[in-house]
Design brief:
Radius of gyration: 18 Å
Largest sheet: 5 strands, mixed
Mean pLDDT: 91
CATH topology of the largest domain: D-Maltodextrin-Binding Protein, domain 2
Number of domains: 2
Distance between the termini: 16 Å
Number of strands: 13
Number of helices: 8
Length: 237
């Protein structure tokens, strides 16, 4: 899924966790159905339900922290929270800076959405959220990339004619193709990433193993697939 471009010296920092009773989970809170803020002002979505269940199985108390996407890895490394659970794809680039649990969803296909058929996704102007797998793919594809800080801004760019299409996770785009606004899927789906996992500081091996065991237990008893199906975030295992 998302690919953060790592350019800050802050990523060299280390901030080990002492395995405190309360584990802080960092998420974006702006990427439904993975994670979003509900009408009550609380973190909600697939990853809220998943994270709470993983903490329960790992015997940990959870506290949720909302953080903007573009600083979500630096703020993990600097100790603002203890794990990232924010629709983050496991990539070699990120793995050089932080560690990952095993994936809790398979790779989610990316897709293009536009206002009409016939859009040239290979050579047109394509919107993507800054620092994502999709923005990196577009930059290397020959199309013209226009980046925006939030996923909602990429949709607005297509609607107002600033971009020909947007490339994003298909699960994020589906509701926009069903709301009567005229947006529709175009072109072929694009397989990106190696599945979504929890980001953990490299110094926190014990925490990683606790979450790995919890994720595996949900895979083994089928409850993870049930959650994936409920929230329609990706294919099942």
């Amino acid at each position: 899924m998302k690919k953060l471009i790592l350019t800050t010296a802050a990523l060299a920092l280390t901030a080990g966790m002492a395995m405190a009773d309360t584990v802080r989970l960092g998420t974006e809170g702006a990427y439904a159905p993975w994670n979003f803020v509900n009408d009550a002002g609380e973190i909600d979505g697939f990853e809220r339900e998943l994270g709470d269940e993983l903490c329960k199985r790992a015997g940990l108390e959870c506290e949720w922290v909302k953080n903007d996407w573009d600083s979500i890895i630096p703020n993990l490394v600097s100790g603002n929270y203890d794990a990232i659970i924010a629709g983050m794809s496991i990539t070699d680039e990120r793995d050089e800076v932080i560690d990952f649990t095993q994936n809790y969803t398979p790779p989610d296909p990316s897709a293009y959405v536009a206002m009409s058929d016939g859009v040239d996704v290979a050579g047109g102007v394509i919107a993507a959220q800054t620092g994502t797998l999709q923005s990196g793919y577009i930059a290397d594809s020959g199309a013209t990339l226009v980046e925006f800080a939030t996923p909602e801004e990429t949709i607005a760019a297509v609607r107002n004619g600033e971009a020909d299409a947007v490339l994003a996770d298909k699960s994020f785009l589906v509701p926009f193709t069903e709301d009567g606004s005229g947006l529709l899927f175009v072109g072929e789906e694009v397989p990106l990433g190696g599945g979504v996992g929890m980001g953990i500081r490299e110094s926190d091996g014990e925490l990683k193993e606790k979450f790995n065991a919890a994720i595996q237990s949900m895979k083994d008893d089928g409850s993870l697939n049930e959650l994936i199906t409920k929230w329609e975030v990706s294919s099942t295992f």
